[in-house]
Amino acid sequence: MAGYRTLNNVLSVFQSIAERHLQIFDYGVGDNWEIGASNELKHVVLWVNPTLSSTPKGTNGYSATVFDINVRVFDLCDKSELNENEVLSDTLEILKDVVVELSTHPNYINGNFELVNDVSFDKFTEYGDEEVSGWETTMSIEIPNGISWCSTPINPIEGYAYLSLDDLIAYYKLENTVDSSGNNNNLTNDLTWTGTTFGVAKYQNGAQFNIVDNSELTGRQKLYNLTAPVSTNSTTTTGFSISTWIKWHALSNNFSTVWELAFTGERAIHLKYENQTSNYEITIDDGSIVTSTLYNTSPTLDQWYHVCYVQQPLTGLWNLYLDGVSVMVDTDTNDGDHGGVSTLVLGNIIEVQNSQTFLGTMDEFSYWGRALTPTEVTQLSSNVIELIP
Question: Are residues 135 and 178 both part of a single domain?
Answer without folding.
Answer: no
